[in-house]
Amino acid sequence: MASKLKSLQSKACQASQFISRHGNVYYKQLLEQNKEYIQEPATIEKCNLLSKQLFYTRLASIPGRCEALKKELDYVKQLWRNKKDLKVEDAGIAALFGLEIYAWSCAGEIVGRGFTFTGYYV
After folding, report:
1. Contact 111, 117 (CB under 8 A)
2. Residue 61, SS3?
3. FRET label pair with 57: which of 41, 49, 50, 120, CA 20 to 30 Å apart?
4. How far apart are the first and last CA of the chain?
5. Taking a C-beta distance cutoff of 8 angstroms, is the pair 93, 86 a contact?
6. What is the pLDDT of residues 67-112, one digit of tens each?
7. For the whole model, what pTM was predicted?
8. Quick check: helix, strand or coil at residue 118?
9. How many other CB atoms sit within 10 Å of the CB of residue 110?
10. DSSP assigned state of 115
11. Residue 119's pLDDT is what?
12. 100 vs 45, 104, 118, CA distance in Å?
């Protein structure tokens, strides 16, 4: 156990040294590549304006999303009406989708309880 801890500590030290040497270069390169998205001057007013624009743009996109959801539900209803014509692939996709929703629900419950499986703080 002590050897594994020593190895892990050594790797963490190497990673820290690598980041301290190359992190600044990566940061500058990233900013240079994405400079068209940077607002100058970066004032509080500009940040507030951008956050409001994002919020209201997302709010305005809700009707389009609702329309897409209605189309998806209509497709599912059509599949349900024609169950006889249902292919194994479609049933498999539906089963995987249901399983994914269940898994995300379980993960959300675990996160909501503070990453405990029993619900009690230990």
Report:
1. no
2. coil
3. 41
4. 24
5. no
6. 999 999 998 898 888 888 888 888 888 899 999 999 999 888 888 8
7. 0.47
8. coil
9. 13
10. S
11. 53
12. 41, 6, 22
